[in-house]
Each structure stands twice: as C-alpha cells, then as structure tokens.
Design goal:
With 173 residues, the protein is mostly beta strands. It has helices spanning 52-56, 80-83, 163-172; strands at residues 17-21, 27-38, 41-46, 62-64, 87-92, 98-107, 115-119, 126-130, 136-140, 145-150.
C-alpha cells in the first residue's frame, strides 16, 4: 500500500520507473507493473517483487520520480523536496520580518496544510508552521527563501524550549 503524497497520482500510469528511498537510506530502482486504488491509498505491483516478504522489504520506503518527470505546478505551489533547506523569514501581526531558520522537514497528516519544520541554527529551536496559502507572503525557490506573514504569537505556540530557556527554568526550580 502506498500513501500518495502527490497531487498527481494519475501520473504513475505514465511513470513506470521509480526510485525507492529505503528506511536505511539506501536506494533501489523499481519498475511499476501495475497499480490500483484501495481506499485513499494505492497498491503498486513492481516487477520482480513477487511475494509478500519481498514487498515487506520496501515497507516505509519513499517512492520518488526523476526531476525531469515532475509535473508543472501552478504558481505558488512547490514540491516538498524544493522546500527543504529554504531559509524562512516571518513577520507576526505586521511587525518586521525576522529570519527564523531553515526548513528541515515537511510533515503531513497534522491538518489540511503540511507543517514546515523550521530549525534555527543558532538556538537549535525547532518550530512547526503550517505551509498554508494564507500565511505565504512570498515563495522564491530560486533564492531558496520563504517569507511568511503570521498571526501575532503564532511562533510562540507549542514551541519547544531552547537550552537557555530550559536552564533558566531549572534555576527557578
């Protein structure tokens, strides 16, 4: 079973050669024989993968296509891989924008919009911010920059404590 993280699942009919990024970080090339829907997921049958035990070796893998096979996106849309490493600047409540770090991960399943996991390289603090259209001020993948316009206080919600904040809390107790 495959959980499609694409807006174009129908394109798998055209793209038969896929790369699997396995849980251990290795990659393997796969040839798609056929696929069929199963609820909100897809079932893939790969050439040479003829048993359940062989298929289990692919569990947790991320299926990828070649860059040149990507579908054209509408303006303002982006591929997840293109977001990783982008610098993020954010303003809250109309205040001046500040650099809050770089995207280290994009997490799905936490709501209607994926979450950007943004890490500040100086403090080590991680923040989760929805990658929602209403918060995107500017998306410039050529410059590797995402500018966000956030509601006041959003960056403080559910933010993990920095080491300095943990030390201060420890001193108080």
């Amino acid at each position: 079973m495959v959980e499609p993280l694409t807006d174009f699942p129908e394109k798998f009919e055209e793209r038969r050669r896929l790369t699997a990024l396995l849980a251990d970080g290795s990659r393997c090339e796969l040839e798609l024989d056929h696929l069929w829907p199963h609820g909100r997921r897809l079932v893939f049958k790969f050439s040479g993968v003829d048993s359940i035990s062989e298929a289990e070796s692919l569990a947790g893998a991320e299926l990828q296509i070649r860059l040149e096979q990507r579908a054209e996106l509408k303006p303002g849309a982006a591929y997840v891989g293109d977001l990783i490493g982008c610098r993020v600047c954010a303003s809250q409540g109309g205040a001046a924008a500040e650099d809050i770090g770089s995207v280290t991960e994009v997490m799905f399943g936490a709501g209607s919009a994926p979450l950007l996991i943004i890490r500040d390289p100086f403090s080590g603090r991680e923040r989760m911010v929805p990658f929602a259209e209403e918060y995107i001020g500017r998306l410039d993948l050529g410059q590797r920059l995402i500018e966000l316009k956030l509601p006041q206080g959003m960056l403080d919600l559910d933010a993990p404590l920095s080491q300095e904040e943990k030390d201060e809390q420890h001193r108080k107790h």
